[in-house]
Design a protein that fits this description.
Blueprint: E1 14-18, E2 21-24, E3 27-29, E4 33-36, E5 40-42, H1 55-63, E6 68-72, H2 82-90, E7 94-98, H3 100-112, E8 117-121
Parallel strand pairs: 6-7, 6-8
Antiparallel strand pairs: 1-2, 2-3, 4-5, 4-8
Length: 123
């Protein structure tokens, strides 16, 4: 019999990114999602553009108090709106926007450092 510690927690790691496909813990997602170290919100995405960001959704994720929030903006990097940057900074949450491939790599690095990171990924 093998004995091991079961702490009943799941850590979500990104295993692979390809355009239109992200593999997380052996599950393939081909749609936008929001990811934290502990949970996946499938078919959700927070836009990096101020006029598209739903304030209620933003408040929900800000209240989870990640150390860093990443925006994967698709195949190319798009910049965050100043309003959105200010919102995260006012809650002392680091925020960055980058291509989705770069956001996936950065997420994994921050996760390996033991940081509480969240990402909104445009697939």
């Amino acid at each position: 019999m093998q004995i091991h510690l079961d702490d009943a927690t799941t850590t979500y790691r990104i295993q692979r990114y390809e355009p239109k496909k992200i593999t997380i813990n052996d599950v393939i997602y081909n749609h936008n999602l929001i990811l934290s170290t502990e949970k996946i919100w499938a078919d959700r995405y927070i836009s990096h553009k101020a006029n598209s960001a739903d304030e209620e959704t933003l408040t929900y994720f800000i209240d989870l108090k990640p150390q860093i929030f990443l925006f994967g903006t698709g195949e190319t990097q798009q910049f965050l709106s100043p309003w959105l940057q200010a919102l995260f900074y006012s809650h002392r949450i680091g925020v960055e926007a980058m291509s989705t491939a770069a956001a996936c790599r950065t997420y994994n690095v921050l996760l390996a450092e033991g940081r509480y990171v969240m990402a909104s990924l445009l697939v």
